[in-house]
Amino acid sequence: AILSRAFYAEKDGKTPFITGLLSIIVNLVLCNILVDTMSISGLALASAISSTVFGLSLLISLKHKNKDSNMKGFGLSMAKMIVCAFVMASAVVPLNYALWNSDASIIMKIITVGIDVIVGITVYIIMTKLTKLYEADLVFGYVKNILKKNKNRTEE
User: What is the per-residue pLDDT across 42-85, written as a single tens digit (0 to 9) for each?
Assistant: First the structure.
């Protein structure tokens, strides 16, 4: 969505539209292929892959449009995010396999998913700190400022 805005700012709505259509087609094809073998997980994977295709298509188009732009910092941030996501998945997937019981009650399934989410978020945050991801530092700073403002309001 952020990359799309760069095109709209340049009065180019055609490129995001075409790449969006490409992303939808990829999603439909992958959903049909992956749902048979992976069930609901296949839908999630298809969605993630199609979103990645959309983002990369826009990024490549933007790079071709602005040949003189320096995108090294962006590429480094993307690489760090991919590493963080991979490490997070490496922690969550085995945990899910260890905890998941298809015969369990719905409450136990919700608890299992909750544990997976908490572990995933924690690992991702730790990885963003370890990789010194600039965008994560911006978010943490923003949250810190909001908490500080709320604390000051409650003290008044």
Answer: 888 889 999 988 888 888 888 888 765 666 677 788 888 889 99
Structure tokens that stand for 68 in this block: 């003189």
pTM score of the predicted model:
0.60
* Ramachandran category for residue 9: left, alpha or beta (phi over 0 → left; psi -120 to 50 → alpha): alpha
Rounded Cα gap, residues 72 and 134, in angstroms = 13
The DSSP symbol for 39 reads T
Residue with tokens 């991979």: 86
Q: Which residue has the tokens 């069930």?
A: 39
- What residues contact residue 49 under an 8 Å CB cut-off, 6+ apart? 26, 27, 30
The backbone torsions φ and ψ at residue 11, rounded to the nearest 5 degrees and listed phi first, read 60, 35
DSSP 66: T
3-state secondary structure of 79: helix
Q: Which residue has the tokens 């690489």?
A: 79
CA distance 91 to 84: 11
DSSP-derived secondary structure for 82-144: HHHHHHHHHHHHHHHHHH--TTS-HHHHHHHHHHHHHHHHHHHHHHHHHTT-HHHHHHHHHHH
